[in-house]
Design a protein that fits this description.
198 residues, mainly alpha, 3 strands, 70% helix, 7% strand, elongated
């Protein structure tokens, strides 16, 4: 990746991060309002069909951590050490579609230039798979917090920690692919190569 393209990508990520952090309380409130409207109107049905599968995967993750949990449809139950039960509702709005949209926007900036098709495909596969895994871990972390620390820390992490995780993931992801997957443009290498003195 040429230096100007890397700078443009980094500036895009910094601008997106700043915008997200500045409007985070507004986004969270507005997101909850939109989620409520969508649930009432039934507009959530296509994404809601993914929720039971994701819930079962999260139960598997929590079991690996030793947290007793169960899932039924869009509801999850986690038990704390005292045996108290915490019921969590996972809606279509919690599965992380927002982070996939942010990833797609970063692809527009990050995959510009003359990169080989193989490298582009690798970046897309790693980015989508990593973002989906991050979303699973994020929801599992909310459930784990509910079981260990209670509802309030879980809600705070759900509302604010997820955005910070996504932004951190995007920075780490693009640093990794710029270094290891997207080769430097040959014209840049030739421009920066030292000239031979005869």
């Amino acid at each position: 990746m040429r230096r100007p393209e890397r700078d443009a990508l980094n500036l895009t990520l910094v601008a997106a991060s700043c915008a997200l952090l500045m409007v985070l309380p507004l986004v969270t409130t507005f997101d909850d309002l939109l989620s409520g409207w969508a649930l009432q109107l039934g507009a959530n049905n296509p994404l809601q069909s993914i929720v039971p599968v994701e819930s079962r995967m999260i139960v598997g993750l929590l079991s690996a951590l030793g947290i007793h949990s169960a899932a039924a449809g869009s509801h999850m139950v986690v038990w704390d050490r005292a045996g108290s039960m915490h019921v969590l509702l996972i809606s279509w709005n919690c599965i992380g579609w927002q982070s996939l949209i942010l990833l797609l926007v970063s692809f527009i900036s990050g995959l510009r230039g003359g990169h080989p098709l193989e490298s582009r495909v690798q970046v897309v596969i790693i980015g989508v798979a990593g973002t989906m895994l991050l979303n699973l871990l994020r929801v599992a972390a909310v459930a784990a917090l509910a079981a260990t620390w209670g509802q309030t820390p879980a809600i705070l992490f759900h509302d604010y920690g997820g955005t910070v995780l996504v932004v951190g993931w995007l920075f780490g992801f693009w640093m990794f692919v710029q270094r290891w997957i997207l080769p430097a443009d040959r014209s840049e290498e030739l421009e920066t190569a030292p000239a031979c003195i005869q």
